[in-house]
Amino acid sequence: MTTTYTEHYQRADGRALRMTFAEPEGSVRGGLVVLHEAEGVTDGVRLLVSSLAGEGWLAVAPHIYELRGRLTGEDVLAATDITLAWLVDRGVQADLLGVVGFDLGGTAALVVASSRKLGAAVSVGGQGISTPVSEELPALVDIAGRLTSPWLGIYGDDGGEVGEAEVERLREVAAAAPVPTNVVRYPGANHRFDADPDAAEEAWQRTLDWFDAYLR
């Protein structure tokens, strides 16, 4: 398992943020911003960061809540911009940058993918498709048609967090965006993909394949 580290990063313009990251043992294939779930940078997020590094990616999770204590669209974009600068400072080329998020981080990843031009983006789960999860985040169907980064959405049908019709509507809206998009549904999986190991393994492989296809 690749070790994770946490450091405080400050840009020349004064903006600063804490980052939890892991580096691959060999050459770096690219850089991935990992957007955390509702509970912040948890052990699960650290495991994801470590696992991505094990696949050759310089993976880093910004501690977004440290900006203002909540997850707003403005804070997600600000934290992502700071983190992208951190990755560039580490030598990652701009066309090899991507973003990924699980659960609420999946919602945030689509917000980023519709506002920033990155090489690739992946959302695994995430509510707020038709109705915003808060007053400070948009409904995803309102922004998916403006995607500016190739985006993959992976959703589980079980658990009731996200409705099947909602996901299909998101698929339809995203398909009109001027970038490649794909939406995959798993009938036996919930939004965290911890109820169906086979679906979880396949979703993980789809995530890696998406980054392989567009970050090269």
TrEMBL record:
Coiled coil: none
Single annotated GO MF: hydrolase activity
Pfam families linked: DLH
InterPro entries referenced in this protein's UniProt entry, alphabetically: AB_hydrolase_fold, Dienelactn_hydro, Dienelactone_hydrolase-like
UniProt domain Dienelactone hydrolase: residue ranges: 21-68, 75-214
UniProt name for this protein: Carboxymethylenebutenolidase
Highest classification ranks of the organism: Bacteria, Bacillati, Actinomycetota, Actinomycetes, Pseudonocardiales
